[in-house]
Amino acid sequence: MSEQDRDQEQERDRNRDRDRERDRERLRAAVEARVLADWGFELPDSLFRFHDFIGSLDPVEASAFADLELWPYGVMDLFDAPAAQARDGVDIRAHGRYYRDPPEFLTFLHGGTDGLHYGLWYDDGRTCAGVGSYYNNDDGGGIDRTCRTPLEAVRVTLERHWYDLHEDTGREPEEVAERAPGMARLRSKIGEFETGDRTATGADYVRTHTYGYRRPPVEPGRITTLDGGGALAAGETALGRPPHNGADEHAFGTHMAAVFADPGELAAAVAEARRRLAAGDPTEALVLGRDLHWASVGDATREGHAHELLAAAYRALDRPALAAVADAHHRHRDLPRVDVLEPKS
User: Fold this and answer.
1) For the whole model, what pTM was predicted?
2) C-alpha distance across the termini of the chain, in Å
3) Is the alpha carbon torsion for 88, 330, 78, 315 positive or negative?
4) I need a surface site. Which of 193, 294, 304, 343 has the fewest CB within 10 A?
5) Chain centre to alpha carbon of residue 274
6) How crowded is residue 248: how many other Cβ atoms within 10 Å of its Cβ?
7) At what angle do helices 173-193 and 45-56 cross, to 10 degrees?
8) Residue 345 has pLDDT above 60, yes or no
9) Distance between CA atoms of 169 and 176, rounded to whole angstroms?
10) CA nearest 118: which of 86, 147, 82?
């Protein structure tokens, strides 16, 4: 190849790179604008890194990612079709929104079992404050908000699978030999985007970077809620609730279950939240609304109270985007499936 030919090839490569970068920026702008217009949420840079990570996977890495039973979902579907519309009569904000998802939760990833899914978390209804995850089909656990970014959530999942693969004595050596190299490559690829400075793996990683083996720290400024996610509020509550992660979860859950099971107690609790809201403190309406939303279990009375209290609390707290999500979710809580986008033509 002549020097002129090499120069021309290098120029073509540079042009292709510039075109790809322009396409990437156009797509980012389109998705950002769509989510801001329809949800009122600002997407964090970490979600775009996650999208870049997905697009960078080679076949071996993609197979290892699929082996984790993870796949992009919810808001990530807009990267394939930023102008996609919901089915007739369905609000776009219902897309990827499971029955118990708090309005603060915006799904971006599905976890493959028992309704496990992950969402960006929006305390103030505008800016992302981290990642939440939970099992929608499992009544035994609450929302885990340990991870700060989507790729942190992927890394934790990988390390849990790594531990299971190497510590489960029932695994055949052939399975370990087949899966481990792809998982190691996937770990390296994640590290190119985030968490590359974290050297622990498997159980050591999970112990170090999650709270599965230790109690999470108390968070002043956030208040205990039944769903485990905590609520951002600064007012007073009827029960004098402790800060997030500061409650006896069993005692708190037992008390709230008794309140919800007694029509008179429930009516009194809702009335007290309304009274405090009217007096200028929406905190009780927020936390009780979140509790009722989480524990609605198909009960129309609980669903109605949850919607009323949450929508009013968000508006009083100047979180109109969350109020709008609460409205949309209430209208569509009985959808048979949460994939509401029209199929791509």
Assistant:
1) 0.93
2) 44
3) positive
4) 343
5) 29
6) 11
7) 130
8) no
9) 11
10) 147
